[in-house]
Amino acid sequence: MSSNSRVGVMTTAGLAAAVCSTAFLAPSAPSTAPSRDVAPGQLRGATASSCSAPMVQAAGAAVVLAAAASMAKSSRPRRSPLKAFETELGAQAPLGFFDPAGLVKEGDASLFYKYRSAEIKHGRVAMLAAMGYIAPEAGPKFSGYISPTLGVKFSDIPNGLAAFNKVPAAGIAQYFIFAGFLELYAAKQDPRDPPGKLSGNDEGFGPTQYGRLGLPKTGGISDPAAKAKSLNSELANGRLAMVAVIGMIFQNGVTGTTGSEMWGLGAFESELGVQAPLGFFDPLGFVKNGDELNFKRRRQEELKNGRVAMWATLGYIIPEYVRFPGFCDPSSGLKFSDIPNGVAAMSKLPLAGGLQIFLFIGHLEIGLLKQDGKRAPGDFENVGYLGIPYAEGIADPEARKRSLNSELANSRLAMLAIAGMIVQNGIFGTTGPQMWLPSALPGQK
Description:
By secondary structure, this protein is mainly α. It has 3 domains: 3-28 and 39-80; 109-263; 293-440, Orthogonal Bundle (Chlorophyll a-b binding protein), CATH 1.10.3460. 49% of the residues lie in helices and 3% in strands. The strands form 3 sheets. The chain has a two-stranded antiparallel sheet with strand order 1-2. A two-stranded antiparallel ribbon has the order 3-4. The chain has a two-stranded antiparallel sheet with strand order 5-6. Helix 1 runs antiparallel to helix 2 (40-75), helix 3 (109-138) packs across helix 5 (224-255) and helix 6 (292-317) packs across helix 9. It is elongated.
């Protein structure tokens, strides 16, 4: 039965009680003494009926008034506790007011105030903590000593969780004392202010107020719409930072570092050759252990093979159009024009000529193009721009980086290209147009 139906029944019952109560009244009689012939029980019954009439009427009236009050109360709109804070800051799409644990499901405003103040506080700390994980990795640390008496420099303190093992106990105690000073005196929450609006202690001249971005003694945002937008942004960023810093702490604990490995990027994401769309591409995991020496050795090999591949690619194309004049081997009468292009050249080139090529490469390897472990992979002391011996390099750092990245990209392309050329050459038996365009073969359309 609905509340309106119950109210209607109560009203009807009350009215019926008030009206029907007159049925119990004795008819009007002369004010004479009762006759001796009246039985005692009849007198008592009449007296009881007369006395009960006003009580029944009063009870009926009370029922009617209670029903009317209940109807008036039920006619007023009732606010669901779950919707009590839908208009508060932070109730943002698509979730609206998000309280899955039901912490304020009863609609208690004082409890909501307490939780919102705690949410803002934790969000602000989390935003600073998230920056504290990133900034020391990207930029320089403070110079000097954090503890001169113990000889601990700022640069000696690792980032992330490992810092707890390096920061002196007195330093950690200072953090707690400073935070307590803010909580209790310099930046405390006044219950008369909105959640998150902090102020200092009132020393007789008014408390210190904090303005935009938490700066003390600065003005806030006067425009109400802009202020609401800014406060909503703070709440949203604070929530994101709380989730982010938990993930950072977890990743830091699992990987044991705050470097690129913690972000799942690998140890060499910032090296040359890390280009879109693949980033640092190591599908076989050759350097997944982050060994720097192993990486440098493989980068050196990549550059060396890439440079040879670029020459080899040109060596497949140019001889189709241009050849050296004269003899490759005068003693046997072998001219350069007699040597075929591609794989077939291996069967025509004299053995002594092949040995000369290997000796020349060995001379470069142990001489002019010897890799110095103190220099970057592929960087030789006496070789400059475009591999020209004793030439100047590129002075501008950005231009140099762009050029080296281009070399790596072209080398990778050349290694794939030369492999394809050798396969095509082996299949079609020629380096002419038929190798590039199979439709040019006899009998092909």
